[in-house]
Design goal:
Layout lengths: L1 E5 L1 H7 L3 E4 L4 H12 L1 H6 L4 E4 L2 E2 L11 E5 L6
Parallel strand pairs: 1-5
Antiparallel strand pairs: 1-2, 3-4, 3-5
């Protein structure tokens, strides 16, 4: 199972910054997270970037046990 790390607004929507989610691909993990965390999480996800072990990933990227999948929303500031 992969470690899912969440940051900023997507973390707030999920109510946690870190959890374990089963899946063999990033897409499977994202689908499980959508189901677990609900509508606000799902609505924020399209604007986010997804990384696996520090490298940008796509939904079909394979994931193995102990991989870290990080979801980062866009950052704004000023």
């Amino acid at each position: 199972m992969a470690v899912l790390r969440l940051f900023a607004s997507i973390r707030v929507a999920a109510g946690t910054g870190k959890t374990i989610i089963p899946g063999n691909t990033v897409g499977e993990i994202v689908d499980a997270a959508n189901t677990r965390f609900g509508q606000t999480f799902t609505e924020l996800l399209p604007a986010c970037r997804i990384w696996v072990n520090g490298e940008q990933a796509e939904l079909d990227t394979a994931v193995i046990d102990d991989d870290e999948v990080a979801i980062l929303p866009p950052i704004s500031g000023g």
